[in-house]
Amino acid sequence: MKPSPQSLSGLFPFIHPYRVQVAGAGLFLILAAATTLAFPWALRTLIDQGLVAHAAPDVLATKFLELFMVAVALAFFSAARFYTVSWLGEKITVDLKNKVYAHVLQQSPTFFETTQSGEVLSRLTSDATLIQTVVGSSLSMGLRNLVMGVGAMVMLVWTNPWLMLQVMGVLAVVVFPSVYLGRRVRRLSRASQDRVADSSAMASEVLNAISVVQSYTAEPREAQRFSASTAQALATSLRRVRARSVLVGFIIMASSAALLWGLYMGALSVRAGTTTAGELGQTVVYVILLASAFAVLGEVYGDVLRAAGATERLMELLHTRSDVRSPEHPQTAPWPVNGSSLVLRDVNFNYPSRPTQQALNGLSGEVRAGRTVAIVGPSGAGKSTMFSLLMRFYAPQKGDVLLDGVSIEQMDLTDLRQRIGVVPQEPVVFSGTVMDNIRYGRPEATDPDVYAAAEAAFAHEFIAELPQGYDTYLGDRGVRLSGGQRQRIAIARAILKNPPMLLLDEATSALDANSERMVQAALEKAMQGRTTLVIAHRLATVQRADCIWVLDHGRLVEQGTHAELMARAGLYASLAALQFSAAAYP
């Protein structure tokens, strides 16, 4: 999206649901401006009728009471405007953040290959906060001063048209330089927000890998990198501040010139006897209102320009289209009873970040329902890529993948992914309780279901020893658990989901021998009645598979049982000789 003055129009869909509240805020805004404009008129009557005319004390008291009533009305309408507009700012910002976050969660991994999570978080926090400030405060203030400025202008034209013509001539000089300076402020605001996002992305990446950073004693180096990034952001911000300072200073100077010119001409009129003191006071206040309105509008204009840049950045996220999404009219496959069937037909795929390097090259194969297939091969053979395609994290450039007789590209993403349970090589544990983490596989599961899944994964014993058992808080990324314990939590999560297909990516790689034996037994139990694909190098897992697929350079080059493949003395046999200890072969 190219920057344009209409960037804030992207907020209209989020404002529309609150049009009644917007109308109420507009009404209070107009009433507050109207009572402000009524104050000079009440002041004129006080001067002309209560002071100059030497009116009786009760008349003077009445005039002061009128002024006080105007002040009361102004206070009430201003408070109502402030509350309504602030409420709108909070609601609109929350809706915007929720919408953007939900949209980002639906993006494919291709999006995250080019967009750092820290940058997304920066847009959801700093940019959204800036929009909230403008929508909930600055914009309302600007509209109020715009109404007051226009009202003061109308009153000046009505009461003293010649003076107003001269004041308008001075104010016209303000507009054109303000527009030029405003555009520069807007460009620098966008650049400043981008630099802040870069710093946030860098910090997020480093903090997520803090153990690696510390193990390489890279703390000073990373601190220096962050300092350089923030210095660049500071330099850009200072350029924006300088440009905005010039803008605000120029507007205040020009507005003051208009005010002083009005005062000078009004004083000459009083001396000539063509204007009363009350009319001069009224004119002076209206000129002050007009000049101050322009000064405030200059300040608000800078805030609006920054919010426009923030809106652009959030709209970029919101308008991003995932390259993998559910079809408009998805096909529904019957839910399998004894595991899902899988067919791959001449699948070709290369990652968007590596367009010339094929990860899968004409991969074809078939897995019957309820079978366990072990997938082996050298690094880069396409094993994990195959899993990513099955989950439709990516779409193949050529070929087709059928699950339960239906092409996965024609299936609803939710339906597809509900059929598959994944246990990754690096287990993910969220910063919640044990119960929350296991139940993540099936949110509606009962406590007994969670306990059963934990027992099946041989996790119940160590969970019971935790301080609060299943209610123990596990910390950020499960730092309170060992690698093997985190893996068993992930296995319990997949078992609780109870899908017809399991994808196990080195699911026992982080376990010691005793834990591996227990978890392997649990996985074998979980595999019953399901189709299971296992990426594994360990002989125990491979030998128990119904079939072994050997991948090399994205192709299926061998398949068969362990004994059959060893007898062929091909790639599998050479991999076995390298990866398994001699003791594994009697």
Structure explained in plain terms:
The chain is of the alpha/beta class. It has three domains: 8-318, ABC transporter type 1, transmembrane domain (ABC transporter transmembrane region fold, Up-down Bundle), CATH 1.20.1560; 353-419 and 500-586, Rossmann fold; 427-498, 3-Layer(aba) Sandwich (Rossmann fold). The protein is built from 19 helices and ten strands. It has helices at residues 12-15, 19-52, 57-105, 109-114, 117-159, 161-208, 210-215, 219-272, 277-318, 383-390, 413-418, 434-439, 447-456, 460-464, 483-497, 513-527, 539-544, 562-568, 571-579; strands at residues 342-349, 360-367, 372-376, 398-403, 406-407, 420-423, 501-505, 531-535, 547-552, 555-560. The strands form two sheets. A six-stranded mixed sheet has the order 6-7-8-3-9-10, with helices on both faces. A four-stranded antiparallel sheet has the order 2-1-4-5, with helices on one face. A hairpin with a 2-residue loop joins strand 4 (398-403) and strand 5 (406-407). Helix 2 (19-52) packs antiparallel against helix 3 and helix 3 runs parallel beside helix 9. The model is unreliable at 1-5 and 581-586 (pLDDT under 50).
